[in-house]
Amino acid sequence: MRPVMRMTRALMRTRDVGVACVFSFACACDSRTGMAGARVDVAGTSGPPALAAPDAALACASCHAAEVLEWRTSQHQVSFMSPDFQRSYRAERRELCVDCHAPLRTADGARDVASGIGCNACHVVSEGHVAQTAGDRPHVTTKACASCHDFDFPGTRAILQSTEREHAQSPFAATPCAGCHMKPRARGLRDHRFDVTRNRELLADAIYVQSTRFTGDVVIVTLATKSVGHRFPTGDIFRRLTLTLTALNEDGDVIAGDTFHMGRDWDGHRASQRAGITESATDTRLTEAPREFRLASPRRPASVHATVDYERGASAEGDFFESFETMEILNKDLRPPATSANVPVPVPAPLASHPKTPTHE
Fold it and tell me: Who's near 151: CB < 8 A, 6+ residues apart?
């Protein structure tokens, strides 16, 4: 009860009663058991030092109430307690999962699972408050994010997540992760919601149809990323994009269709892991380099309908792909330019078809 009273008084000083209500509810949780006191079994005992007290985020809110409130609504805060993570963790219990999803510890050494990726995970260095002088802010660099967003399978050179390496090879290598994923606010502050994979608008803005060519009975649709500093999607190996192209005649009837997946093939990735290969040839994710997708049609279509779904996968095996969530991020009608009946449509030199994974029905 004391942490609740302390936090309420601190937040009342900010004159933000709404914030106080949010944190009073959050404080009712036991840091070692999670939301509403649900006991969480955590594998292993090694990991980062005990940098977090049970009410560490609440202590920060006395000076940083807005930031802590944003963090309370973020995926960082529920990184361990989220149903999606818990479902995956039950299937494969590895300590490296806990080290990233619950990196902090309570004063008695227990994993602080209720805080998830709490304030101290980024803002405390050697148990002290981080330096805030210009040019000396280690928590806002790309390297600060890499420990949990770029790593290999344990004991191998096979890549599990490679966001930092992708970022280093992108046109935006000089822009730190926070430059895109923490929107600027007033007084030089930044948003702490880390609102990415659940933000449809942000995901939709990451890709675009660069061009569409109707060449006789083949439609070529070109996609690319837009101002993205890594491959898309990045992060977990079970994330992918699914492009669906549907050819329609003048009456709106479907005359052809095909589906293309952009991601990392799990079976190919496991083969790379066993062989000790660092890069997998089955990685078909999007980059800023335009990628062509070809749809064959029995005759020239009047239009083509294109949709792209962003899928956060739970598991994959062969042709089977199970999703936590599927979010449509592109829905577009593509039509050929008007041409004279006497002018033939130019047909470019043949290009290799884009590799695709069979659709699981």
Answer: 96, 160, 161
Last residue in a domain, options 96, 131, 166: 131
- For residue 318, what are its two tokens? 């062969």
Supply 79's token pair. 């990184």
Structure tokens given for 193:
């919601």
Measured in whole angstroms, the distance separating CA 83 from the mean position of its chain's CA atoms is 16
Residues of the chain with pLDDT under 50: 1-40, 44-54, 131-136, 340-361
For residues 266-295, b (16+ Cβ closer than 10 Å) or e, as one string? bebbeebbeeebeebebbbbbbeeebebbb
Q: Which residues contact 233 (CB under 8 A, 6 or more apart)?
A: 197, 239, 240, 241, 263, 285, 310
Spatial separation of the C-alpha atoms in residues 177 and 194, rounded to whole Å: 10
Domain co-membership, 26 together with 127: yes
Preceding amide of 336 cis, omega within 30:
no
What's the total number of domains in the chain? 2
Same domain for 124 and 218: no
Residue 164 placed within a domain: no
pLDDT of the residue at 30: 32
> Residue 277 corresponds to which tokens in the numbers above?
């290969």
Strands (E), 36-95: none
Q: How does pLDDT run across 275-287, given as a tens digit for each residue?
A: 766 666 678 999 9
Alpha-carbon distance of 208 to 224, in angstroms, equals 6
What is the rounded CA–CA span in Å between residue 42 and residue 111? 8
> 220 lies in which domain range?
200-334
The answer to whether 78 touches 101, Cβ cutoff 8 Å, is no
Query: pTM of the predicted model, to two decimals?
Result: 0.75
**Residue 357 located in a structural domain:** no
Give the chain's mean pLDDT.
76
Residue 176 is assigned to a structural domain of this protein: no
Q: Are 242 and 309 in contact (CB under 8 A)?
A: yes
Asked if residue 294 belongs to a domain, the reply is: yes
